[in-house]
Amino acid sequence: MAHVRTFAFLVQYLMQRLALFVFAIAALALVCATVGAAFGTLPWIQMNLRWDGLTVPNAGMFVQIGLTILAVGICFFLP
């Protein structure tokens, strides 16, 4: 029974490392896309957003920057 528990902890550890690696790669891709859009080499996300009947200009840019900050922040929080 101890072998099964040890194996389960090993699998859990490896899956957590894999999830952290995948999320870190996704956050790095978001950072690269946002920096590329800021320098004009990539386009910003296009998004039609209305707030209280008014169109929000550059809403895609704000969403992309917000998601990038969130993804990088989560990378610091994850073990």
Brief rundown of the structure:
By secondary structure, this protein is mostly helical.
Any idea what the radius of gyration is? 19 Å
Helix content: over 70%
Can you list the strand order of the major beta sheet? Answer: 1-2
Task: Classify the oligomer.
Answer: single chain
Shape: elongated
Order of helices and strands: HEEH
| Amount of beta strand | 5-15%
What class do helices, strands and sheet pairing give? mainly alpha
Determine the number of helices (DSSP H or I, runs of at least 4 residues): 2
| Secondary structure tally: strands | 2
Descriptive report:
- The protein is mainly alpha-helical and 79 residues long.
- It has one domain.
- Helix content is 71%, strand content 5%.
- It has a two-stranded antiparallel ribbon.
- Helix 1 runs antiparallel to helix 2.
- The two termini are 28 Å apart.
- The model has no long low-confidence stretch (mean pLDDT 93).
Secondary structure layout plus pairing:
Blueprint: H1 2-38, E1 50-51, E2 54-55, H2 59-77
Helix pairs in contact: 1-2
Question: Which tags fit this structure?
Answer:
79 residues, two-stranded antiparallel ribbon, 71% helix, mainly alpha, single chain, elongated, 2 helices
